Amino acid sequence: MSEHQSTYVPKTAFERWMDSRLPIIRFGADYMSLPTPKNLNYWYTFGAILTICLMTQIITGVVLAMHYVPNTELAFASVERIMRDVNGGWLIRYVHSNGASMFFIAVYIHMLRGLYYGSYKAPREMIWIVGCVIFFLLIATAFLGYVLPWGQMSFHGAVVITNLIGSIPVVGGPILTWLQGGPAIDNATLNRFFSLHYLLPFVIAGCVVLHLWALHHAGQNNPVGILIPKDRTAKDTVPFHPYYTVKDGFALILFLMMFAVFVFFLPNALGHADNYIPANPLVTPAHIVPEWYLLPFYAILRAVPDKFGGVVAMFGAIAVLFVLPWLDTSRVRSMRYRPTMRVFFYIFVVNAFILGLCGAKLPDEPVIGEFSTFILIDGDLNSYLWLGRLATLYYFAFFVVIMPLVGLRETPLPIPQSISEPVLSGPAAVPAGAAAQPETRG
What we know:
By secondary structure, this protein is mainly alpha-helical.
């Protein structure tokens, strides 16, 4: 599929002139006619959804930047002015703030789909790695944006995270001073955060282009997880348009309906009430928490008693994703044919929700409450801190221990010879490793 020949033929004089100088029309036409596996399900529609989310965030962000004032004395008031005095400002702000949550919902589903179907395996390692870079930049952008309203949670969240950077030996202090613009969180810090928050979405957009380029070169994965031989391309694929443009469009409409419910009916459901209080360095909130989509990483940070160790664990939770293609030792891509690994994957998904819950709760808050004495759980162990530590242990064990060992010892189910044929016990089925060989290129 990566060697798809161009079938575009310019029909007008303008198209011929444009094609000889900047073949952007040819690029679009070739992408629409790209042979795509015909068995892609709705989990594969989140790539298009993420593209729309990124465009929405950039457009609404640019409009908000026209009215926002990056000054500690005026930032909170400027956000309130956007909400009250700017025509349609409330809508733009709610679309932007809830759009971040929608973005992360789609990102997490997109990454879990790639994990389940083995989309990170050869020859698609660079697609996954560039995607991890986008994910890291997205986390950084979301954190910087969370600070800009300059409410109580914004300010004190910035204090907590920047102090963690300062705990890094040798280089932590200079980086902290540069990031803050001085010895403490102040006006210079807000200016830096605003500049970076404005810049990074365009960097993400550039990385998305690389992501699509790598996808176009290596070819699209599919739920079966097998490579499509060149002599079966016509049988196992369909043109991207109209088959998947229609499918993506339908999924996008459903996603936008959910998005609209939050914007118009639950605009503050995913935020924190303390952020509607102006920042006050002298009053610390009872419980400082990040936005919901960063809670799992916050739980990992708190799971380690040492501050620097917590920073290493938090960044390690992201760094381990970059080496995932080399940690998975299985020759089979899709977990459809890996029943043992599929069970561990489902536990991993539940574990991610547990980490999010632990990040949202106070560390010493009891998990089971008053009934803990009836099930013989020690009082010190009956806390969200210890539950978060167990969940953190499984998070890393899944990638570093379970995935390599299960890949070596499991017995996968038979894999079909092509995506057009069902799994049979007869000639149509082949041994597990045979249909999952790395693609060879001439």
